[in-house]
Amino acid sequence: MTYKEKLQQANREALAAVIGLGATIIVWALLGFGVAQTGIVVFSTPLWVITGCFGTFVFAVVIAVVMAKFVMHDVGLEDDEEGADNGR
């Protein structure tokens, strides 16, 4: 993998992380603030606390697993022979 390809992969991974963070924030807002209107109580705890905490955690774990399987790639940091000049 050339230096340029390594940078492109790093950019893809960074973009996926930002998108995952944005999706997690949206899910947190929906499961926290969105469920707060219902007034449902489970085990003397409002439902929005449970969904806002545990639901968001489960969503974030799922996003992390999906990113690890489909987006992230193991890229060595050493220089390859063909990319030894690093594009400079």
Largest sheet: 2 strands, antiparallel
Cα radius of gyration in angstroms:
20 Å
DSSP helix count? Answer: 2
Tertiary shape:
rod-shaped
Task: Name the poorly predicted regions.
Answer: none
- The proportion of strand residues reads under 5%
The helical percent reads 55-70%
Strand order across the largest sheet: 1-2
What is the rounded distance between the termini?
Answer: 16 Å
Q: Could you spell the SSE succession in H and E letters? A: HEEH
> Which structural category fits the helices and strands?
mainly alpha
Number of strands: 2
Please write out the topology.
Blueprint: H1 3-36, E1 41-42, E2 45-46, H2 47-70
Antiparallel strand pairs: 1-2
Helix pairs in contact: 1-2
Describe the structure.
This protein is mainly α. It has a domain of 52 residues. It is 66% helix and 5% strand. The protein is built from two helices and two strands; from the N terminus they run H-E-E-H. The protein has a two-stranded antiparallel sheet. Helix 1 packs antiparallel against helix 2. It starts with a helix and ends in an 18-residue tail after the last helix.
